[in-house]
Amino acid sequence: RSGELTVRREGEYLSMDFPARPPTPCEPPGGLTEALGAAPAEVWRSRDLMALFDAEEQIRALRPNMDRLARIDAFAVIVTAPGREADFVSRFFAPRGGIAEDPVTGSAHSTLVPYWSRRLGKTSLHALQVSARGGELWCEDRGGRVTIRGQAVPFMEGAVII
Fold first, then answer.
1. Are 35 and 62 in contact (CB under 8 A)?
2. What is the C-alpha to C-alpha distance for residues 25 and 63, in angstroms, rounded to an integer?
3. Can you tell me the distance from the alpha carbon of 105 to that of 128, in angstroms, rounded to the nearest whole number?
4. Does pTM top 0.85 for this prediction?
5. Which H or E element spans position 137?
6. N or C: which terminus of the chain has fewer CB atoms within 10 Å of its end residue's CB?
């Protein structure tokens, strides 16, 4: 659906190229604050809903109600805030798609990178996804495309027999 997605090895990192999905400001949908357990400062939308908070600690402390979050009219809900040691932090919840919380989400950064790039006035960004497992990413806003670089750990190996 996004067109061709490429992955390149760059030393110990994998670099992925995604189409950018810049968000636009919107009114918070009914029930979002109750679903997240906290009120965001702002809400933006692209494919996903993006709830902006003021501090990294707020993102880390969220304990969303997944049943309520699944009733929000969005594919997923991204929560984000400025980071202490990175440009920004985030978490990604997609209970409508059967994913309570994705530990590290490339596609979410298609929305996050254009937003934070404009807000911070720079195109190269350091990001932390602060789920329980967590992940560290280095991102670049290239206009209509977003590059996301990070480390990957194999978790499954298999073969397809035809």
1. no
2. 24
3. 11
4. yes
5. strand 135-141
6. C
Reported as a single tens digit per residue, the pLDDT across 13-55 is: 889 999 999 999 999 999 999 999 999 999 999 999 999 999 9
Q: Which residues contact 3 (CB under 8 A, 6 or more apart)?
A: 19
Six token digits for residue 8: 């390149």
Amino acid 95 reads: P
CA distance 107 to 128: 14
Residue 119 has which token pair? Answer: 């807000």
Sign of CA dihedral 111, 112, 118, 123: negative
Q: 130 — phi, psi (to 5°)?
A: -100, 40
| H-state helical runs in 121-162 | none
